[in-house]
Specification:
Blueprint lengths: L6 E9 L3 H12 L5 E4 L8 H4 L31 H14 L6 E2 L4 E7 L4 E6 L2 E10 L21 E4 L13 E5 L5 H8 L5 E5 L6 E2 L8 H9 L1 H23 L6 H14 L3 H6 L12 E2 L3 H5 L4 E4 L3 E5 L2 E4 L4 E3 L2 E4 L14 E2 L6 H4 L18 E3 L12 H22 L3 E4 L1 H15 L3 H4 L21 H7 L8 E4 L10
Parallel strand pairs: 1-2, 1-6, 2-3, 4-17, 6-18, 7-16, 8-9, 8-16, 9-12, 10-11
Antiparallel strand pairs: 4-5, 5-6, 13-14, 14-15, 19-20
Helix pairs in contact: 1-11, 5-6, 11-14
């Protein structure tokens, strides 16, 4: 840590400038708080929507729902917007709410330590040191790419990159390209690059359920109406939200109701793939919704093209330019695109956050991620997570969950100031009670009973990622901070005085 003369002292430090970080910054300004910084490792805002610029990148949540309620955009060009439009929207949010002066680009956080003596977070970045009373970690679960350690990969003579680190300087035209994985990014990448590559080989361990994507251009008349009669856009957002709220019951309580959706997905597969052998490879053998349901009108037709091979197996090893699948088949390629997701249940940032007693967040979570209301964690006073444990969604907009957590953040700061304490720390009983209830409700969901292994689950098979309820339920649970769930830490003592 640097000397006190080189440390910038602020009330709140926010890590990350995606939806979560920018949302937190906006909410602080709305609360009249201006003593804060946003520490961003990149050179611009946007988070995952800055980093993921692969061909075909777009959102699978309708645009009017995948945006802040306090910053509606009447000019979305499509019902499901692409990455460039979403990134541009976040840039406009930063400007509209006067956040530029708070942003610190190329400030990757290399360590954050709770100092029990000063009751503050001491934060190291690549460009300086900060001290904050409250630390908001808004790095999100889709920020650090996960690349499998495949034997022989280091000796591959061609080009290798992850979907979130796309090499736009590499020309895929005419190349033999392998795409590893069949998740949300792969089903967008495959149709985008299939027409230009010489041969595309898709390595598929598990076929996804794919539904039709009801995407279209938003007409000029619609945009005019949204701009001049804002209530119409608000009504559309409400309708989109309500439809998804009604779907939750099938995912979390009555998975059997999803059979109708399975029939629609199978019909979509039959329309896109006429070859029965290929169709059999692409047919899931687990319950609809167990893994993330994907939306595309172009994925299946792309796989049916003559320059595409679907390998119904994972990648086992690499021998020079030859990729060996787990079924023993060999495939010569010039480039490998890993569409293998992110470190979701083993967040790398957790290794760099050190709480009371010198324990890292990763060590605290060695048995699985856990926290109170998805936002605070025992032993880490005045640390608030945006998109923390069990706050993810399988069918709706994460922006709704983020805004609920911003309500909690705002009330946390109010209660902290009013209490006379310098910090709040979750009681062990409150955190245990919350997580026991979440896991009890999780047991009957399709994510636990659907017969698949998904990225929602951690290494022990527990779902520490998703929220087993509606967004309205989560908003009620995070509307206010209950001080009975916290120990109060005062400046004169190092230990909590209110159990």
């Amino acid at each position: 840590m640097g000397s006190s003369a080189t440390v910038q002292h602020v009330k709140v430090a926010i890590i990350g400038s995606g939806f979560g970080g920018l949302g937190a910054a906006v909410r602080l300004r709305q609360e009249g708080e201006t003593d804060f910084v946003v520490l961003e490792r990149g050179d611009s805002v946007g988070g995952t929507w800055r980093d993921n610029s692969y061909p075909g990148c777009a959102c699978d949540v309708p645009s009017h729902l995948y945006s802040f309620s306090f910053a509606p955009n009447p000019d979305w060009p499509r019902t499901f917007s692409g990455q460039p439009e979403i990134r541009a929207y976040l840039e406009r949010v930063a400007d509209r709410f006067d956040l530029r002066g708070h942003l610190r680009f190329r400030h990757m956080v290399t360590g954050a330590r709770w100092d029990e003596g000063t009751a503050r977070w001491e934060i190291d970045t690549e460009q300086g040191h900060y001290s904050a009373q409250v630390l908001v970690a808004a790095t999100g679960p889709l920020s650090d790419p996960s690349i499998p350690d495949v034997p022989g990969i280091a000796d591959f003579p061609g080009e290798i990159f992850h979907s979130a680190q796309w090499n736009h300087d590499y020309d895929l035209a005419g190349k033999r390209v392998a795409v590893i994985g069949t998740g949300a990014s792969a089903i967008q990448i495959v149709p985008a690059i299939q027409p230009k590559v010489g041969r595309l080989t898709l390595f598929q361990r598990t076929p996804p359920w794919v539904m039709s994507r009801m995407d279209r251009n938003v007409t000029a008349a619609e945009r005019f109406l949204y701009r001049h009669v804002p209530a119409t856009q608000k009504a559309l957002r409400g309708a989109l939200w309500l439809v998804r709220e009604y779907q939750v019951g099938a995912f979390v309580k009555r998975p059997g109701l999803l059979r109708a959706a399975e029939a629609l997905a199978l019909a979509n597969l039959k329309r896109g793939v006429k070859d029965p052998v290929l169709r059999a490879k692409l047919t899931p053998d687990y319950r609809f919704g167990c893994k993330r349901v994907l939306l595309s009108n172009t994925y299946y037709p792309a796989l049916a093209q003559p320059n595409v091979d679907v390998v119904a197996a994972g990648l086992r090893e690499v021998k020079g330019s030859t990729l060996v699948a787990s079924d023993g088949t060999e495939h010569e390629v010039d480039a490998i695109v890993f569409s293998t997701g992110f470190h979701v249940t083993d967040l790398p940032v957790a290794d760099h956050i050190v709480g009371a007693g010198g324990r890292t967040l990763a060590e605290e979570w060695v048995e699985g991620m856990a926290g109170l209301r998805g936002t605070t964690v025992r032993g880490f006073p005045n640390l608030l997570l945006v998109i923390g444990p069990n706050t993810g969604l399988g069918n709706s907009s994460m922006v709704l969950m983020i805004e609920s957590q911003l309500n909690y953040l705002a009330d946390y700061l109010r209660k902290l100031d009013a209490s006379g304490a310098v910090a709040l720390d979750v009681t062990a009983s409150a955190q245990l009670r919350w997580n026991d209830e979440v896991q009890r409700r999780m047991a009957r969901t399709v994510w636990s009973t659907g017969g698949c292994r998904s990225w929602y689950l951690d290494a022990k098979g527990n779902n520490t990622t998703l929220w087993p309820g509606t967004t309205a339920h989560f908003r009620r649970e995070t509307r206010t901070v209950d001080l009975h769930e916290y120990d109060l830490i005062h400046a004169s003592v190092a230990q909590p005085v209110n159990a």
